[in-house]
TrEMBL record:
GO terms for cellular component: cAMP-dependent protein kinase complex; cytosol. Pfam families: cNMP_binding (PF00027). Gene3D superfamilies: Jelly Rolls (2.60.120.10). The lineage of its organism: Eukaryota, Sar, Alveolata, Ciliophora, Postciliodesmatophora. InterPro entries: cAMP-dep_PK_reg_su-like, cNMP-bd_dom, cNMP-bd_dom_sf, RmlC-like_jellyroll. GO terms for molecular function: cAMP binding; cAMP-dependent protein kinase inhibitor activity; protein kinase A catalytic subunit binding. Residues 37-136, 162-263 form the Cyclic nucleotide-binding domain. This is Cyclic nucleotide-binding domain-containing protein. It comes from the Eukaryota. It comes from Blepharisma stoltei.
């Protein structure tokens, strides 16, 4: 937002007043917030800049920066124009609300010696270099912390659901670590007390225990070990050992220079939310499925390949066998999941159709009875037919059907028939607003989650005996 002539004049008068009152400092902060080039600064750095600003008047032709000066201060043109010249560069004209001199990291800095001269009568804002560098060092630390929090949000399952204070608390649990190319980060067979998130670089995860050998040695360089995965920026390594307290099945070796974030087992288990821990365990399960599938595919290719007598032919046959297998990326894991679902009886086209209610065990709820401590099930008299209650909330599209002491949402398939329960047994022992029923008819990846029906929705079921 450009400042009006009246606002610029008020800005100038406020800068010229010494000492500045609290009201004048608030006015300066308001004007600084309106300058586009200073908008990336957080509020605390803007306040510090307001305290350090000095205003100088320069007549036309007066020199602001000499070509002999080796160190420059921070300058911003309030009114007027400034001409910047440097050997080997064309002349630049700095207009109002633009900066020059020591401008890094707010703007690109001109390297080498420069000469700055006022093109017309100008008012220039100046901040001494020592104070400016101190403010910018805090600003750079703020940017790094902001990037780290964004990285944490993307790298941790369910990171977007965590509050800002929670992300900051999780970030404080990590420490920085660096590894050279070829350095072993985690060793196979050990239970380390820490794991890592890769920030920069790549790591290979290899296993020597199941490698395929031949009388002449290994099949080839690529088959000398199982190259399970290539961990890149944003991926975890070693978390499976911490979560399940099991030895590592592979070694993690830096393929390039690696920067990582390290966290101990105590900080991970006691510092992370329970929801994040459960999502991490689910992510580890997906990785293990993918690694198992990859190992079986590689071994199948090796075992079924032709074994010629010459070692040269063997190397040519199996050289770079691993190139035929994808990396353990999210797309590869999703592809493996789709293959697993294709083997089941699951049909997604039926998800929006209405379920058929069959073979439901009738349940009798006594009149005016309050259900406070769970879902109580009574075995009613034998009946050939019965009525079920169907009373959804008006704002909800999915209907809630009461059947055998459990609720099943009518927009999910297939319906779940709960087992028969004895008199007085509790299905849900905790006082909660929802229950989860596992869908055992099709794939286990799709649990049915339904809302608990309040007591005032319950009515007596009319039992009819023919």
């Amino acid at each position: 937002m450009a400042l009006s002539a009246r606002a610029i004049e008020d800005f100038k008068q406020t800068l010229m007043s010494e000492p500045r009152s609290r009201a004048q400092m608030n006015k300066l902060r308001f004007y600084v917030k309106s300058i586009d080039i200073l908008k990336p600064l957080p509020l605390i750095q803007k306040i510090q800049m307001c305290k350090c600003m000095e205003l100088f008047e320069h007549k036309k032709g007066s020199q602001i920066i000499s070509i002999k000066d080796k160190v420059w201060d921070f300058f911003m043109v309030l009114t007027g124009k400034v001409a910047i010249s440097s050997p080997g560069l064309s002349q630049l004209i700095i207009e109002p609300m633009n900066i020059f001199g020591k401008t890094n990291p707010l703007a690109e800095e001109i390297h080498g010696r420069i000469n700055a001269v006022a093109e017309e009568n100008s008012f220039i804002i100046k901040i001494p270099i020592e104070k400016y560098m101190k403010i910018m060092s805090e600003f750079i630390s703020f940017l790094e912390k902001k990037k780290s929090i964004e990285f944490i949000e993307k790298s941790i399952p369910g990171g977007k659901l965590i509050s800002e204070s929670g992300k900051q608390r999780i970030l404080n649990l990590f420490t920085d670590a660096e590894f050279k190319s070829g350095e072993i980060i985690l060793k196979e067979g050990e239970i380390p007390g820490y794991c890592f998130i890769i920030r920069e670089g790549e790591c290979k995860q290899v296993n020597l225990s199941g490698s395929k050998k031949h009388p002449w040695g290994f099949m080839s360089r690529t088959m000398s070990c199982f190259n399970y995965d290539l961990a890149v920026a944003g991926e975890w390594v070693g978390e499976s050992s911490l979560l399940f307290n099991k030895p590592l099945e592979f070694s993690v070796i830096a393929s390039t220079y690696v920067k990582a974030m390290k966290i101990t087992s105590h900080a991970l288990i006691h510092g992370f939310p329970k929801m994040t821990i459960s999502l991490l365990k689910e992510s580890v399960g997906n990785k293990v499925d993918w690694w198992t599938h990859r190992r079986e595919s590689i071994m199948s290719t090796v075992n079924n390949g032709p074994l010629n007598e010459g070692k040269k032919d063997i190397d040519e046959t199996f050289m770079n066998t691993e190139r035929g297998y994808p990396k353990a990326s999210k797309a590869a894991i999703s592809s493996l999941r789709r293959l697993d679902l294709a083997k089941t009886d699951y049909r997604p086209e039926l998800m929006n159709s209405r379920p058929k209610i069959r073979n439901l065990t009738p349940v009798l709820y006594r009149k005016n009875e309050e259900i406070n401590e769970g879902w109580r099930v009574w075995s009613p008299p034998k009946a050939r037919s019965f009525k079920y209650i169907e009373k959804p909330k008006p704002e909800k599209k999915a209907k809630t059907i009461l059947c055998s002491g459990a609720a099943v949402s009518s927009n999910l398939l297939p319906t779940y028939t709960p087992p028969k329960s004895r008199k007085g047994s509790l299905i849900d022992k905790e006082r909660s607003n929802s229950i989860s029923i596992e869908n055992r008819t099709h794939s286990p990846y799709f649990p049915i989650r339904v809302k608990k029906i309040p007591s005032f929705f319950l009515k007596k079921i009319d039992m009819k005996n023919d």
